[in-house]
Write the structure tokens for this entry.
Amino acid sequence: MNRTTLISVGIAAISLAGAIAMRPVQIEPKAYEDTGDLLFPEFTDPSLAASLEVTSWNDEAARVVAFQVEQKAGRWVIPSHNDYPADGTERMGKAAASFIDVRRDTVRSDRTEDHASFGVEDPDKADGTGRGQRITIKDAGGSALVDIIVGKTLEDKQGYRYVRFPDQKRVYAVKLTLDVSTEFTDWIEKDLLKIDKDAVVKLISDIYKVDEKEGRVTGRDPLAVEFRAPAEDPSQPKAWVNSDGTTLPAGKALDDSKINQVLGAVDRLNIVGVRPRPEQLTLNALQAKGFFVTPDGSRLFGNEGELRAVLNDGVVYTLYFGEVTFDSGLALTAGVGDGVGAGDSAEGEGEKTANRFMFVDVAYDPRYDEGAPKPAEPAEGEGEPPLVEGPGLAHATELQARFDKWFYVIADEAFQKMHKEKADFLKDAAPAAG
């Protein structure tokens, strides 16, 4: 064998050895010392949770969004929604319990390059796809009880998710039943007004229009009805009767079923969003949402009318219906990026859902407070004695403190159920006997 042949054989042998060394092989999974350990071994009591923050990427808005719930001064609030009161005790307990006794089942990767495919990229830092949901739960002292990035679900293991600690590369698969809601309406008292429709003794529907260009109110034809016994015979059963000078067209009568439908809509009224109401209301703050005041500031109007309900404890709710909004997401629920008239027009909005601004005013009228002491009969020659306030005043004061801080957004469907003209409450009168 000559020298050239020997060199060729040597090169071939080296190439064969390299190919063998580089061929794919099945690598046994490494046994990590933390497999099977608890994710958060020191977190055992969900009642210690005093705040929750969920940070995620919103594709529609093309930006990072954060939802927060926190306990402040002994009450739950939603900081991401201007500290709106939260019904947080039960919901927070469920969110916190999601991470108790959760174990690191298997290690799926120690490579940063794999984070996007598992969906555990930090939403605050990632530039592309694969962003996860970062969930942070803290105690009253501000110490983190949970801080984790939750990624995609596993296709091969039902009920499992990819997770990663924000400051680590390692990705785990864990069995996780996540009960962490970022829906604003899941955290709040859903019954906005807390009205029992059977407690309503008077209803006034005034569906006028505000002509903004002319600066005047048009189309006023209010309907006022009361639930009481006939004045001529108080022993008779109570019924809905027209009052406050309301006259009915000839051949028409009140339709109790239509009145009850409106009261049912008021009773079930839920909110879909809130905006903080400034302590000193300005014309801009009001008009931007469809509310207007008289020049002397004594009377408020909504550009789609108003509905007033008086309860049997003297509490008077007035609901003013304002401008429509086509916002969605955080812009709808919290007003982030809000600006009625800037992107909220109905023109070209396609399938966007319409909602409506609403202003809630609460007052007290002792004439309707069934618990108020009856004034003494006036002596001859004396005028009517002043009305005596009853227990309903405290109820009204409590409600005023609640509603005076907010503008509300309600679903257009709820608005349509309450927004009824006079004719909508009427039916054909029964023919007179004989």
Observations:
- The chain has two domains: 46-187, 197-376+386-428.
- Residues 377 and 383 are 10 Å apart (CA to CA).
- The first strand starts at residue 51 and ends at 58.
- Residues 3-22 form the longest helix (20 residues).
